[in-house]
Write a structure and sequence with these properties.
By secondary structure, the protein is an alpha+beta fold. α2 crosses α3. The two termini are 15 Å apart. It comes from Kocuria soli.
């Protein structure tokens, strides 16, 4: 997805734990971060809506570079995953950024009976997350 913000603006946005959780977490869910600024070791907790279930998801920031990406590894939740949010200059050069979201993982042991449900819900969640990110970035940058 392309956002109307320079890569440095995206990096500053991603570094602020409160802003990051505002777009990443489930709407209406209570979220928390162990630090104000994202850094390796920051612990994030937020609820996910998976049909009738609302499990708590806990992830740890394993890598953060404000110029290019943040990597999260889940430690508790329905999916054992490695999530990467990366950004680079977009088609409009340094006035825009292309952001990619990649989730690599598998259902956690207790959720392995519902792989189809998890696939569908995870895909919907990622689309909704991307939409919230775009809307939040547009509001934040005023573009």
């Amino acid at each position: 997805m392309d956002v109307p913000a320079a890569p440095t603006e995206v990096g500053a946005f991603m570094e602020d734990a409160e802003k990051f959780l505002a777009f990443w977490a489930s709407p209406g869910g209570r979220t928390s971060s162990s630090t104000r600024l994202m850094a390796p070791g920051t612990v994030l907790e937020y609820p996910l809506s998976l049909g009738p279930f609302t499990p708590s998801w806990i992830a740890v920031v394993s890598h953060f570079n404000p110029l290019e990406q943040i990597v999260l590894r889940s430690t508790n939740g329905p999916v054992d995953a490695r999530t990467t949010v990366a950004w680079a200059p977009g088609p409009a050069g340094h006035e825009s950024s292309r952001i990619t979201l990649n989730v690599d993982g598998r259902p956690a042991r207790r959720w392995s009976r519902f792989p189809g449900l998890l696939t569908v819900v995870t895909q919907r969640y990622l689309v909704a997350t991307g939409t919230r990110l775009l809307e939040t970035m547009e509001r934040t940058t005023g573009r």
